[in-house]
Amino acid sequence: MTDQPIQTPPSPPQTPVPSPSDPLIAVNRGSLGVIVVGLTFFIVGVLVGVLGYDRFASNNRAENEELLSAAVATFAAVVPQGGGNQVVAQPTRDPNARYEVSADDDPFLGAEDAPIQIVSFEDFRCGFCKRFNDQTIEPLLAEYGDRVRFVFRDYPILGPDSVQAALAGECAHDQDKFWELHTLLYADQILTRDAFIAHATALEMDVPAFTECLDNAVYQSEIQADYQAGASVGVGGTPTFFINGRILVGAQPLESFVQYIEEELAAQAS
Length: 270
Description:
Blueprint: E1 24-27, H1 34-51, H2 53-57, H3 61-76, E2 88-89, E3 108-110, E4 116-122, H4 127-135, H5 137-144, E5 148-154, H6 160-173, H7 178-188, H8 193-202, H9 207-215, H10 220-232, E6 237-238, E7 240-243, E8 246-249, H11 254-269
Parallel strand pairs: 4-5
Antiparallel strand pairs: 1-2, 1-6, 3-5, 4-7, 7-8
Helix pairs in contact: 1-3, 1-10, 3-6, 6-7, 6-9, 8-9
């Protein structure tokens, strides 16, 4: 890794008019302060607590869906939302700047001590995230193997379905099935409670435990932490990647990742 200093992200400039060369990402319509996000999850927590464990754990499917939707909607209502296919130009970022981005305890592929760490902020509803996962992630990991650690962090900005999918992913991670569910969610992007439970069944999870985890929004604080981490380093849309702290925005082709990785490996070897 080079000796570039850690930089504090600048205030985002006005969004320029898109041009064909701009990277494409799904972008939220504004920035949300950490205080607002924290307050939101506090409200969700109070809502879940008041409704009570017994109601969530009951066999009343319609009630479970209604209560989960209410909790999710509380979060989604204050997160700036973008359309699922929105195309916006991302402000130019210095590709040589380095940001301090933690992997936290989030799901990862590759070796834990790999010399290259890629932290990805994604939304399961994002079409450009799907493009990356359909076209780029497998050849990238095949090319670099244990030299890359690829970390997934939640950045659900495209509505209530995004939040529910993030919760489902965390519940699958609890049973060491995150990447299997990740593949299924990006395959069809059908982000409903019924679809999540069907996937959990197909993956031979403990379905009652998964459903209880989902309906109780158990990992809402984990999603909050991911969102805050991304917002604190200026993530404005999905997907956004940090390669050893260097930012790469959008559904970039494999060659863009190769360039960054080769530069990092060469710097470490010198």
